[in-house]
Amino acid sequence: xxxxxxxxxxxxxxxxxxxxxxxxxxxxxxxxxxxxxxxxxxxxxxxxxxxxxxxxxxxxxxxxxxxxxxxxxxxxxxxxxxxxxxxxxxxxxxxxxxxxxxxxxxxxxxxxxxxxxxxxxxxxxxxxxxxxxxxxxxxxxxxxxxxxxxxxxxxxxxxxxxxxxxxxxxxxxxxxxxxxxxxxxxxxxxx
Length: 191
Description:
Largest sheet: 6 strands, antiparallel
Distance between the termini: 101 Å
Strand order of the largest sheet: 1-7-6-9-2-3
Number of domains: 2
Radius of gyration: 25 Å
Shape: elongated
Structural class: alpha+beta
Mean pLDDT: 76
Number of helices: 3
């Protein structure tokens, strides 16, 4: 009977710590539904309080290490845009949900784009930011910060790999002309 009580107590204590009932264990994890248009997400690093291009590249976020910093919208209001992508984040006051948009032409230069949400909280060993890989062509949508915390800033990073190169109609026309000529030449040589 004592063993059963002891095992039950240990199980209850582990359950309490796991789900944050006792202590300050609060595990937040990203979910692709946090950012409209995202196809993948990755948690930040608990020991690294801020996102940066160096952290993303050093840790090969989404399998790549050639990310470039594009823009950041602080809340409230200030905008830092080393690359002009017309980033707009609203609302621009500390909140845990809102919308984002940037110039859709950004996709003509960058093959992959990620949005990073960073909270304004402090404290050791808890995740403070989350990265979301956007689906091709997505340039606007809604965001919500996991766990209901207020947003400090939203950053945008891009990588130039895998940029689709449009095939001009003239190349298609030239190709069909060459195929026609080769067919005509074959017919003539058979006679």
